[in-house]
Amino acid sequence: MPDPTGLELLASVVRSRLGDDAVIQTVHHRGHGTIEIEPAHIRPTLELMRDEGYRFMASVHGADEYPEEPRLAVHYELLDMNRPDRVNVKVRVSTDEPHLDSVAPSWPTADHQEREIYDLFGVIFDGHPDLRRILMPEDYEGHPQRRDFPIGGEPILFTHHEAEGEHYPR
Fold first, then answer.
1. Domain definitions of the chain by residue range
2. 78: which of 17, 54, 72, 139 fits an S-S bond (Cβ 3.0–4.6 Å)?
């Protein structure tokens, strides 16, 4: 995990190559470093991080940071297997304009993870090769991991009730 100095060095490399507006902030919390960037810079930032040795994308995951705005966050966990070292690249988009460039074409491991974030949080990954729901039915309305999603959901149809068409419990 990069120390605060190493994290700032990485952020300065991003700023020098992509512009001062590319990096919003850096956070070093509990031994874990995060570089938060502007959404427009996600693809070039991750390509730059690859050039800096972070060649393994361990995880892509979403979060709803309600009540903060923009509230939908996407975290890219990158590893440098030679040092060993890890860094989190974070980007946030609003629920009004939840668009973000897909990184799946250059980072194949992001393919299914971007689909999951789309399905559960509603972030639309522009340029994704096959953006569709992965966990919920195609006709499902809403995004169940958003904090404003109604609690209680739908009645669950259990297998032993399929023949009668009963739902549990009402």
1. 4-142
2. 54
